[in-house]
Amino acid sequence: ALLLVGCSASGSATTSTRSHPKVVAAFYPLQFAAEQVGGSHIDITTLTQAGVEPHDLELSAQQVASIASADVVLYIKGFQPAVDDAIAQEAAGKAVDVGAEITHLTTGGAVDPHIWLDPANMTAIGNALANRLASIDPDHAATYRTNARALAAQMVVLARQYQSGLARCASRTIVVSHAAFAYLAKAFGLQQVAIMGLSPDAEPSPARMAQVAQLMRADHVHTIYSETLVSPKVAQTLAQTTGAKAVVLDPLEGLKPGSTDNYVSVMQANLTALQANQGCRS
Amino acid sequence: MGLLDYDFMRRALLAAALIGLFAPLIGVFLVQRRLALLGDGMGHVALTGVGLALLLRTAPIPTAMITAAAGAFLIEFIRARSRTAGDVALALLFYGGIAGGVLFASLAPGQGTGTLNAYLFGSLSTVAASDLIALVILCAIIVITLVVFGREMFAVSLDAQIAATQGVAVRSISTMMAMLAAIVVVVGMRTVGLLLVSAIMIVPVAAAQQITRSFRATAALGSALGLTASVLGLVGSYYVQVPPGPAIVIVALGGFAVIAVVAVPVRRYRTTR
Amino acid sequence: MGLLDYDFMRRALLAAALIGLFAPLIGVFLVQRRLALLGDGMGHVALTGVGLALLLRTAPIPTAMITAAAGAFLIEFIRARSRTAGDVALALLFYGGIAGGVLFASLAPGQGTGTLNAYLFGSLSTVAASDLIALVILCAIIVITLVVFGREMFAVSLDAQIAATQGVAVRSISTMMAMLAAIVVVVGMRTVGLLLVSAIMIVPVAAAQQITRSFRATAALGSALGLTASVLGLVGSYYVQVPPGPAIVIVALGGFAVIAVVAVPVRRYRTTR
Amino acid sequence: MTAERREPDGAIVSTQHLCVAFDGATVLQDVSITLAPAQVTALLGPNGSGKSTLINALVGLQPVQHGTVELFGIPLGRFSQWQRLALVPQHLPGASSIPVSVWETVMSARSSPRRRWRPIQRSERQLCTDALDRVGLLHRRRDRLDTLSGGQQRRVMLARALAADAQLLILDEPTAGMDAQNLQVFVEVIAHQRELGRTVLIVTHDLDDIEHLIDQAIVLEASTDQSVVFAGPPPLPPSMHHVAHHHHETPPQGAASPVVAVDP
Amino acid sequence: MTAERREPDGAIVSTQHLCVAFDGATVLQDVSITLAPAQVTALLGPNGSGKSTLINALVGLQPVQHGTVELFGIPLGRFSQWQRLALVPQHLPGASSIPVSVWETVMSARSSPRRRWRPIQRSERQLCTDALDRVGLLHRRRDRLDTLSGGQQRRVMLARALAADAQLLILDEPTAGMDAQNLQVFVEVIAHQRELGRTVLIVTHDLDDIEHLIDQAIVLEASTDQSVVFAGPPPLPPSMHHVAHHHHETPPQGAASPVVAVDP
Ligand SMILES: Nc1ncnc2c1ncn2[C@@H]1O[C@H](COP(=O)(O)OP(=O)(O)OP(=O)(O)O)[C@@H](O)[C@H]1O
Ligand SMILES: Nc1ncnc2c1ncn2[C@@H]1O[C@H](COP(=O)(O)OP(=O)(O)OP(=O)(O)O)[C@@H](O)[C@H]1O
Ligand SMILES: [Mg+2]
Ligand SMILES: [Mg+2]
Ligand SMILES: [Zn+2]
Fold first, then answer.
1. Please, which chains are in contact with D (at least 3 CB pairs closer than 8 A)?
2. In order of start, what are the domains of chain D with their CATH numbers?
3. ipTM value of the model?
4. CA–CA separation, E244 vs E240, rounded Å?
């Protein structure tokens, strides 16, 4: 162990070249924000590939190397343990915990990481990134700030669409399979009822399912939302029991492989699904 | 009761009863062959299969089935070819399965283990009618295999060498046992979940063997305990709000503990083992 | 080479070498006692510990350590008290560990298994200097324990009854072995990851025992193979861009296969086992 | 008894120039033996001379380097009538993970592939009952095998072989650890098998007990050009007495030597 | 030899009214025996009479229902000088997952807690070498134990006990499956141990081989009010001849009866 002492900062000494800042994004929504803010002035690497459940990511040595040599690393602390570890080791000063800027919601006592589902939070993420990029690449500071404002504008538009689209709905209760939509629900006055908790891979309890079924009957809910990256079986079973239908609502933890969608288009598709199934009049 | 008002509960009850009743009948052979952790191992191998399917763009479930069967075959192959005990062969497969799964997932760009899980994991509260049919077919396969090959399977478990001199095709029967277990695990994990199917094969048998004096009695008592634990655990989970799979496993483990306590006055000997 | 330019790679190399060299020395006892899957089992038990810690709001890592140690104790207790073989006791703990972990997680609302994982899974590419110190201490503990208690551990593995008549405290020594394994697993999983630490204890030993003729030679060859696989796998993973843990395990499994092929002409006997 | 009682003319077991080696060390060298129908053969030889190895080679558990084995006139490679032979190995079964009863152990003799599609016959149960009764352990049939004493377990394994109702019985040291009374029973069992026209191969270190039943003795010796140093009807030549008779090298207080005793 | 050579006056082993039962079935009833220093005792009795159970009870492997056991004058519960005894169990070791060599098996006799903090002494190695040499298996010391023949493995277990260099040797059927020549060696080994002042307890079914060495015989019988039906110096009373002598109930072709033979 002796020979390691004293050289712990040498690995990151190679970043002084005046080329594009290297930005590493932990998973898709952060990649989107980086693309919007940095545009063509930065190089973006995403740690979580499309289609991967981001929670249990493992990093290869090259990916750790990319973190070590990055100028900015965008991540949400406490969401992906492997990324947290790598940042603690290799990029302590260069990391931006985008969750730090945001008032967290807690679901049943635990911090809910799914912040990106509220467009306003994306604006905050964009601003935080622009500030950081401006400080390490002052030449393009203005561009970054402009881009961040443009992202903010997009998000405002998106939020308006949601607000007006969900203004008059027959039901404000959304029944979802895992509790990913708390931020979205809070932002737009919906009521999230989740069959499972924050993690999508737990087994649902029959008692909870019966509870939800009862609640759906009482509130005349006719739709259950399932997700893209996780098995829709829970939603289907409950749908069958209650005569409701199962519809996909994407928690945007990642894109499907080969998808040409982006954050905005997925969010709009989600809105359309919500409007259609919550009985909303526009 | 209210419990049977929901058709998902009725299906769950039937599925739990079936798996509780029949899985220990396979489990008793697994324990005897020192493959008590085969269930979990097969789960990992099946996961590798799904990873492979995503890489090769084939259908995941059949591929998982095939890899699991290949895994069963491989265990017996390793046992027979290299001088390796059953549990060590299983460990090799197990760790190989995880490592392979992660590697494939990282090689197939954009396929994470989360995606893999979606193809494999069922749960008792979400058993569909079609799943029940698969389960009934599975149980029929178990019963038929046991009726036809049970005696040979027993002979092989007892002493493979002697069985060979009786003309029993030891390799084939061994592989058949492992395959049967693999099928149970893969079908079971799809329908009632991996934890439940792999634990319910073993835990009731482990509980039973503490007080029984014959193989047959162990199988019978194990099966009865499996059924009891399944029904109790499921009903309990309806009232206590916990997932049914773990609840059933905990009840079965409680059964083990109860029998262990009851058995101590029965057998007071054996200080070390 | 470029490989050693990154100090995380230097740390990874050192960690891999240490664990590859010393873990098989414990693994050889585990295999002999039919606890080849103890690594994975301990991982699950440690997970239960973290679940419990979340529920009780205590510190997760010490709680995990304590549950793992309790698990080790429990395995030996089950073995000694109920007439249950080592692998079956392990299976009980294993399935109990998963079921318990899931139950605790579902009782502590809002704590998914994802949260649990965060506390437990290390990875070779992110070993910190403090982790290395933990690892060095671990290796020192292994060496000292082996030097002092190695002969008694061997006697117990060979035949617990005879060892008892030599005055060896069979229960204590057994429990000590399981505890040692538990410590290796918990320290190892935090630093180099669960898959790597539990596989590297077993796979090199399984490879070695195919051609060796003594316990000591098996331990020595297993240790050498562990070291080789660790270094080769890590270096390979740097160039091929796969996670290092699985890469090392795959290399070790490759070693098993190579020795199996080489050993066949050496031992052509034994048709069934 | 249910099995047909045929008396084949040819040899029941025969080997030609059999060689077996482990890791290069030759254990059996040029072994050519013949077991005739309805004969009892004793296989003798010091520890490590290859008796168990020879038996394993005869039943196909041990690959051979050179030479041929024929069972019932059929080369071992093509032999499939395994229900015609029964084996008692030298080692007792080890600890089992699942409890196995004495009865189940004996019944497992009836699980050949030929009987796969047939339910267990009443006559098969009778065979097992008779066999257990014969070795005096019928009252223990419901007990766990591994709670029996060493000598009792050995008798269960013998009963298991008897329950196979086979024409060829191969017994590897069946009398080791048997008490005198059970040895007597054993002698009666073998005599009965011979009467039924069965062929029996017995490995033993103490011929005295069964010498009067023996039609042929085969003596193996380790590390010689030819492993078989004697094959023929007893008595053994004096030079071989040491491999077959236990306790006459140090005659206890000048005892009279028994029958075949021509001490070297 | 390294261990001190003490000749205690009192009994090496003694039991008082020992009772042992399994699942309610009494196996040993009211057993009171004494092994004096420097004596060789034969423990006799039919299969299942409880010889192995008695031995296990003596060394604390078998809990007892009633009665007391003393080793070297110390009650079993407080006994801790385990390096003073060595045991050879009846069963051979089963298959091991990890290869274990003959040498390692014998060396494991030296792993008592007392020697924990001491490195292995040269004299300890010498003890193991001597013991293996004595049973004629020194040349096999590097081989895997489970590749040895049954009789060879039994001799390794004997060597293991000898390597313990203990004052009390307890041997459960050490001669089962031993060939005549090795039996001869065994007799010499026991004679040598007796000369060294060691106490030896041997379970056997065939007293003839070792009768001239025996100072005391203990005969157990199953299902009696008192398990011990005879205890004293040989010869045995005629009525007990059947538990100790193998092959004279059916005299082979009218052989002369050997020495102690007073057949019933
Ligand atoms: N698997 C093996 N690998 C290597 N050598 C072996 C193996 N099995 C047996 N041997 C050797 O072959 C020789 C013959 O062994 P075998 O068991 O046939 O002897 P045996 O005549 O039956 O002796 P015993 O009277 O002790 O039973 C022995 O020297 C033994 O060490
Ligand atoms: N664990 C056990 N549970 C129940 N009964 C047992 C157990 N162990 C031994 N017995 C019974 O106790 C009796 C005595 O057994 P033991 O092994 O002491 O006999 P033994 O005199 O050594 O016989 P042998 O000459 O065959 O070795 C037997 O009837 C046996 O079935
Ligand atoms: Mg033999
Ligand atoms: Mg005995
Ligand atoms: Zn999520």
1. B, C, E
2. 13-243 (3.40.50.300)
3. 0.86
4. 7
Mean pLDDT computed over B224-246: 90
pLDDT band at C51 (very low <50, low <70, confident <90, very high): confident
CATH topology classification for C3-272:
ABC transporter involved in vitamin B12 uptake, BtuC (1.10.3470)
pLDDT recorded at residue A85: 82
For chain B, the domains span 3-272
- E99-118 residues labelled b (16+ CB within 10 A) or e (exposed): bbbbbbbbbbbbbbbebeee
Question: Is any ligand 2 atom within 6 A of the Cβ of residue E45?
Answer: yes
Structure tokens at B161: 């060498």
pLDDT band (50, 70, 90) for residue C273: very low
Ligand 4 midpoint to CA E196 (Å): 27
> What is the number of residues in chain D?
264
Is the minimum distance from the CB of E62 to ligand 2 under 6 angstroms?
no
E–C contact: 3+ Cβ pairs < 8 A? yes
Residue B238 to residues B200, B232, B234, B241, Cα–Cα distance (Å): 19, 10, 6, 6
The Å distance, Cα E116 to ligand 5 centre, comes to 54
Choose the residue to mutate in E146, E147, E157, E183 for probing ligand 1, maximizing ligand atoms within 8 Å of C-beta. Answer: E147
Closest ligand by atom to E46 CA = 2
Beta bridge partners of A226: A248
Helix (H) or strand (E) holding A174: strand A173-178
Ligand 2 site, residue E55, Cβ cutoff 6 A: no
Question: B216 and chain D: CB distance < 8 Å anywhere?
Answer: yes
For residue E52, CA distances in Å to B163, C214, E83, E95, E146 come to 30, 30, 21, 22, 23
pTM (2 decimals)?
Answer: 0.88
Helix (H, G, I), strand (E, B) or coil at C32: helix
Distance CA C206, CA B96 (A): 13
Give the residue numbers in E contacting C (CB under 8 Å), as ranges: 59-61, 80-83, 85-87, 89, 93, 96-101, 103-105, 108-117, 120, 142-144, 164
Residues in chain C: 273
Pairing assessment for the beta strands A245-248 and A223-226 based on DSSP bridges: parallel
- Residues with Cβ within 8 Å of B52's Cβ and at least 6 positions away in sequence, in order, are B58, B63, B67, B100, B104
pLDDT at E6: 44
Taking CA atoms, E50 is separated from A218, B267, C228, E45, in Å, by: 74, 17, 53, 8
Residue among B36, B107, B210 whose CB faces C91 most closely: B36
The Å distance, Cα E106 to ligand 1 centre, comes to 19
Q: What atom of ligand 2 comes closest to residue E56's alpha carbon?
A: 18
Per-residue model confidence (pLDDT) at position B32 = 92
